[in-house]
Design brief:
The protein is α/β, with parallel strands linked by helices and about 325 residues long. The longest helix has 18 residues. Helices cover about 40% and strands about 15% of the residues. β6, α6 and β7 form a beta-alpha-beta unit. The strands form two sheets. Strands 6, 7, 8, 9, 10, 11 and 13 form a seven-stranded mixed β-sheet that branches. The chain folds into two domains: about 150 residues, 3-Layer(aba) Sandwich (Rossmann fold); about 130 residues, Response regulator (Rossmann fold, 3-Layer(aba) Sandwich), CATH 3.40.50.2300.
Length: about 325
């Protein structure tokens, strides 16, 4: 199994498109092997900065679809931004971004089927679950479609999977929390942990790394409270945690992070909040000092490099399969903004 992938840059935010749709919970599957940080250096002779502006060597027109878990999260828009950057660089690509109205395997499968019916050459997909879209992905592969995972992979074979190593990212979040608490002279106490659902594997992996990093310390990590599409679950848990003198809170994704920050702000309290992702709402709370730090993923890199590798695979210059790339996190604090 090969392991090399291209990493180029940028992170943008904004708007929302529309797509296929109804409802279930996502399970974001991360690769079970160590992830590599880099494309195809053995198959790519010139630097990526030179390669980026070139047309496909064959001059053929390709059709590429991006299919995300929904169309409402600015995180998916950032992946779309990265895709469009690569398309502008490469040319000769018809591109469409679609997705369900909510996290739902059946709806996402319908989106894959739609792309196949439209004769897509490549599909970039943030899979809802490990198995839920595999039948449709199998049909896509049988139709000659290249499959690239961005952010979250199903268990079906692919060209490559570009995502955050979530366990390591969770450890980074924990070390950031430790540093912030030590700066306040806090060496023990209870920390609240907020997740999305028990099945949201990316967030579970982040929590795993976070909890592992606190083993053997004087801190106690409370049982995870799951949001489950209801912001009140998180906000009520934060209020209860503040009343119980929790020293900090950890949010495993954008939604939990925003709701923790808003609950702390509404309570007029001070706490050490560490979260994930960089929506406008999260960054606003960081700039206000309500959230101490957030882990910035690199969704634009996932989109950009996902499209680039998909086209290389179609052109035959990228011949590896099932490669994995950790696109990393950056710690964003008020001071670093």
């Amino acid at each position: 199994m090969g392991k090399k992938c291209i990493i180029l840059c940028s992170l943008l935010l904004s708007l929302v498109l529309s797509g296929c749709g109804t409802q279930t919970t996502p399970e974001i599957i991360m690769p079970d092997e160590p992830m590599q940080s880099s494309v195809n250096s053995t198959q790519q002779t010139e630097p990526e900065t030179e390669k980026a502006g070139q047309q496909q060597t064959s001059g053929k027109n390709y059709k590429v679809y991006l299919i995300t878990m929904d169309l409402t999260d600015s995180y998916w828009k950032s992946i779309d931004d990265g895709c469009q950057q690569a398309i502008n660089e490469l040319g000769n690509i018809t591109y469409k971004w679609i997705g369900p109205d909510a996290h739902d395997d059946a709806q996402q499968s319908a989106c894959v089927d739609e792309a196949v019916a439209d004769n897509a050459d490549a599909i970039l997909i943030a899979a809802n679950s490990a198995e839920g879209v595999n039948d449709s992905l199998k049909k896509a592969e049988e139709a000659g479609c290249k499959i690239v995972y961005v952010d979250s992979a199903a268990s079906y074979d692919c060209v490559t999977a570009l995502a955050t190593d979530n366990v390591e990212a969770g450890r980074t979040a924990a070390e950031t929390m430790k540093t912030a608490l030590q700066e306040k002279g806090i060496t023990s106490g209870t920390i609240g942990v907020m997740g999305v659902t028990e099945d949201t594997a990316s967030c579970v992996a982040r929590e795993t790394g976070f909890r592992e990093a606190f083993e053997g310390t004087g801190f106690t990590l409370a049982d995870t409270v799951y949001m489950r599409d209801d912001a009140a679950n998180v906000k009520n848990a934060v209020k209860d945690g503040l009343a119980a003198d929790y020293v900090g809170f950890f949010g495993t994704n954008e939604g939990t992070t925003v709701n923790i920050g808003e609950a702390v702000k509404e309570a007029g309290a001070e706490s050490t909040v560490i979260g994930f992702d960089t929506s406008d709402a999260v960054l606003s709370l960081v700039s206000e000092g309500i959230i101490y730090a957030t882990m910035q993923q690199n969704p634009a890199v996932m989109g950009h490099d996902g499209v680039t590798i998909a086209i290389q695979s179609l052109e035959g210059s990228y011949t590896d399969t099932n490669t994995k790339t950790d696109t990393g996190v950056t710690v964003i604090t008020k001071d670093s903004m």
